[in-house]
Amino acid sequence: MREAVAFGRNGNHVRLSEKPEEAYGGQSASALWGSVYKSLGEEDSGLFGVVTSRSDAQVRRIATTYAALDRSREVKIAHLLAALALWDYSKQSAHLVFKGKTGDEIADEILHALRDAGEEGMSRNELINYFNRHVKAGRIRAALTQLRAEGWARAEVRRSGGPGAAEERWYACVPQ
């Protein structure tokens, strides 16, 4: 470990290997990186998306760390595969903790209520009552706007009873 730390302190530039590696069908680390890079850049929504963003940069850092631990001036396929495996594990862990959460406490609670309401959905008035009128209507409106913009919820206008009477009902778009 001391040797790896000393190697890392020398300011060596660690780059992706361009050399074909027979153990991996003649593919190079650079070619492998080219094939996985785009999929790593796909963004997720909500709090999960925030904590897993910039996955391409994270994987490169992890792979470079593995190369430095091997005292290698190049990131090889084994380093890259190990980094991808660690990132996959990290992303799965983040999914368990953060998936289905927006990062906004009121929006998350509204989403929970909408999921519980199922096909019935909820009106704004029902949402205000859900919070026992302790959350201002403007705050609920802002949370609903955020949920709609991020694809978590949708609204439908339903005609009811009297002339011109319409009710806006909200539904969760993303299952738990």
Describe this structure in words.
This protein has 176 residues and is mainly α. It has two domains: 2-98, no CATH class; 105-172, Orthogonal Bundle (Arc Repressor Mutant, subunit A). The chain contains eight helices and five strands, in the order H-E-H-H-H-E-H-H-E-H-H-E-E. The chain has helices at residues 2-9, 29-40, 46-51, 55-69, 77-98, 105-117, 124-130, 137-149, and strands at residues 15-16, 74-75, 122-123, 153-159, 166-172. The strands form two sheets. A three-stranded antiparallel beta sheet has the order 3-5-4. The longest helix has 22 residues, at 77-98. The protein is elongated and about 75 Å long. The model has no long low-confidence stretch (mean pLDDT 89).
Q: Could you name the key traits of this structure?
A:
single chain; mainly alpha; Arc Repressor Mutant, subunit A; three-stranded antiparallel beta sheet; two-stranded parallel sheet; 8 helices; 5 strands
Low-confidence stretches: none
C-alpha termini separation: 44 Å
Rg, Å, rounded: 24 Å
Physical arrangement of strands within the biggest beta sheet = 3-5-4
Helix-strand category = mainly alpha
What portion of the residues fall into strands of 2 or more residues? 5-15%
